[in-house]
Amino acid sequence: MRHHDLVVIGAGSGNAVVDDSFADLDVAVVEERWFGGTCLNSGCIPSKMLAYTARVARTVREAGRFDVDAELRAVHWRRVRDRVFGRLDAESDSGRRGRVQEDSVTVYDGRARFTGPRTLRIEGEHGTVDISAGQIVVAVGGRPLVPGPVAESGLPYETSDTVMRIDAPPRRLAILGGGYIAAELAEVFAGTGSHVTVVEKEERLLGPQDETVAERFTELVRSRYDLRLGRELTAVDGEPGALRLTLDDGATVEADMLLVAVGRVPNSDRLNLEAAGVATHDDGRVVVDRYQRTTAEGVFALGDVCSPVPLKHVANREAKVVAHNLRHPDDLITADHDLVPAAVFTEPQIASVGATEQDCRDRGLDYVVGTADYGDVAYGWAMEDTTGFCKVLAEPGTGRLIGAHLMGAEASTLIQPLVLAATLGIDATTLAESPYWIHPALTEVVENALLDLDL
Questions:
Q1: Is 439 designated active site?
Q2: pLDDT tens per residue, range 53-91
């Protein structure tokens, strides 16, 4: 049995753990599928590249609003897909080659399972190998959840892992789920001309978002998609390319393709963690302490397999923490999950940080609300924007920012000054009145929302 000083299981954010400071160690990286993980291959990056293309197509379609005579003749899906994945597959291959060429790193292609404390069996297409390690990092991420009626039907379906690589967009696409993955991919395929039907068990889309965002976004997309809200799927039948979804109210949805986007589950169940003494939460997430240490000595975890906030920028931060703590056991650092910003790359974009208004009520917090519309600032006039807005929540008296939420153009960028203020303890009044805010930039909508707070 070969022994390594360090084994990293998973070459997404886990691969970022191994930097030049580990060159003196015998390191192994185990990956069963693709270097770069979900983000590079089937998540954040390809979906945003496709969403940007959909945004360009929508801009052409709606050019008449600006007295521009333009016509969208076609979105060439295969060219778009090949442009996106031609670049990303090359990045993934390059990442693997780079590790293989390092003298101090061994790459194992295959699935790892624990056989005991810090011992692993790796099964791949070239056979089985057993290894041990002084320290192990678990970074195997997660996968799409597939509900029973879909899995039991025996009929084909797509997930975010597969749908972006299809050969042609369907004429009729049914999407099961109403979260951020469903919303982003609905925008992508509507942009290609697909008729989109969304089936969601909640009464509005993007339910975890602030209530104002969820309500306004749901109403905004009613004219774009066939929304079946408050409904659950009970059965899928028909045949490939001609599916029929039956809902709990007896209604049916006809579709050429079904995209399942109801959530994700951690891949912890594939590792035989019991043999290693690694505990998990009821939802399958690996239990870690504030230093990313699991319940087993010498075993760390990071990313979607353990994180309460399954986002790429969180996984990257946790990778930095794990890298430091592996090398400096007497000077441990922590990953802070209190104020993690997030964005949804729909049209319009959505971004948030901190508490929602419903969170504040549920926690009994004393708070005030400030709002501003894109349409009330000069750049919003230029954009002919009638739906975008910024909403900030603050503590009365102190002006401490509790939460912030935007829906509108470039929301993922406009949220950043609010993220900085909340993280660094800059109160709302200071943020609004101390720096200059460029006129007539779109950032004025953030300034106006802060000034609207009754502190």
A1: yes
A2: 999 999 999 999 999 999 999 999 999 999 999 999 999
